[in-house]
Amino acid sequence: MRTVWRFHGAGELVFGWGAVNEVGELSTRMGAKRIFLLTDKTLLKFGIAQKVVSPLENAGITLEIFDGGEPEPTLPSVLKSIEAAKKFRPDAVCGVGGGSNMDMAKIVAKVLAHGGSPLDYVGDDRIPGPILPLICIPTTAGTGSEVSGADVFTDPSTQLKLGSLSNYLRPKIALVDPQMSVSCPKKVTADSGIDALTHAIEAFTAVDNEVFPLPPGQRSVYQGRHFFGDMVAEKAIKLCGEFLRRAVMDGNDLEAREGMALAATLGGLAFSNVGVAAVHALEYPVGGAVHCSHGEGNGLLLPYVMRFNLPARKKEFACIANWLGASTIGLDEDAAANQAIEAVEKLRGDIGIPAKLSQIGVKENQLHEFAVKAHSIQRILRVNPRTTSVEDLEKILREAF
Ligand SMILES: NC(=O)c1ccc[n+]([C@@H]2O[C@H](COP(=O)([O-])OP(=O)(O)OC[C@H]3O[C@@H](n4cnc5c(N)ncnc54)[C@H](O)[C@@H]3O)[C@@H](O)[C@H]2O)c1
Ligand SMILES: [Zn+2]
């Protein structure tokens, strides 16, 4: 029996070389006159944020440029950005950067619209209505935050990454211009790129929409696996297989940059409707404690979680193997599925992402606590194709250690 599924994205998605030049006209059409532009010092230093500033200024929009964005934003930095925005009283917010800056812009747009603290909205579907009109312009190719209904920040007091999920968080306008990511250093390209792959693989192998385990009376932005999600996830995986290595090896490979920009946005569309699962649930406590990048933590953990999920998703893993360029001809079901894990391990190694948690500063005595914390993030974990106990999660972490 088929159940109802739906698909959300940004209000308008503009993709391609030069897309960023349209930001002035699109903002004006949206009715914006005062825009709070959230970016960071690195992007200003490289002249990347200016590619957004000029067309906005030329359109006569009054801008406040806030350069306090930081990688993997923490609650204190988020609060600073909210204070600055409140003083400026914008009618729209623009996030320019990787997932970190775009997420901060989302938090600003929701707190300015609804008041309170970012902590009030942590969880699934807890935003009461529309947020300030939001424009997101990615400068990495990875998170898909430009189309997603999610934001993430770290609370230093609990060392946990906290996320908010709501379709109200989806930007009104997503401008994805591959040119913006050309200056990304190798590590940022690799980490954010494997995050895109993780989004697509977790969505493509998620629990089915028909059996998505939602307790009665609860609502969820994630819906489990469905036809439309599969379609975009498949293309995202193929693009990562074709272009991620190339983008890391040669940042000026423009075809690879464009392929990865598209992969990231498609991965974002897939996961933000279907869901992410155990890889992300495990990365939240790991990243919160050792401050690795989100993508590095995900990329490291991905093959270990795939191995755990394999019994539930053999057919899908065989497809993934082929899409990542491995051959499954003549192999039985298990061997074909295993090829997907090997292909991801090979890709992870080729782009320089570590294979063991001990290499990124995790201590063995932290593993149990990480498993307990990950298990508490049920809004994500319930998307996983196999149910996971604390013991299962700890076992995965021990293998990854
Ligand atoms: N909201 C979502 O849907 C979603 C999804 C996945 C991840 N995330 C979050 O996104 C964050 C990670 O984002 P990210 O991987 O895009 O990296 P990032 O935003 O943390 O950026 C990493 C670094 O790269 C620099 N950088 C970015 N673009 C550059 C460019 N073009 N040239 C030179 N330097 C550049 C930044 O200044 C920063 O120092 C995490 O906080 C993660 O939790 C959010
Ligand atoms: Zn992610």
Task: Give me some keywords for this one.
binds zinc ion; single chain; 9 strands; 401 residues; Rossmann fold; Dehydroquinate synthase-like, alpha domain; alpha/beta; six-stranded parallel β-sheet; binds nicotinamide-adenine-dinucleotide; 49% helix
Description of the molecule:
The structure is a single chain. The longest helix has 23 residues, at 227-249. This protein is of the alpha/beta class and 401 residues long. The chain has 2 domains: 12-181, Rossmann fold (3-Layer(aba) Sandwich); 186-400, Dehydroquinate synthase-like - alpha domain (Dehydroquinate synthase-like, alpha domain). A 6-stranded parallel β-sheet has the order 1-9-6-4-2-3, with helices on both faces. The model has no long low-confidence stretch (mean pLDDT 97). The chain has 15 helices and 9 strands. It binds nicotinamide-adenine-dinucleotide (NAD) and zinc ion. Residues 40, 42-43, 46, 48, 71-72, 97-101, 103, 139-140, 142-145, 148, 150-152, 180-181, 183-184, 188, 191-192, 195, 294-295 line the site of nicotinamide-adenine-dinucleotide (NAD).
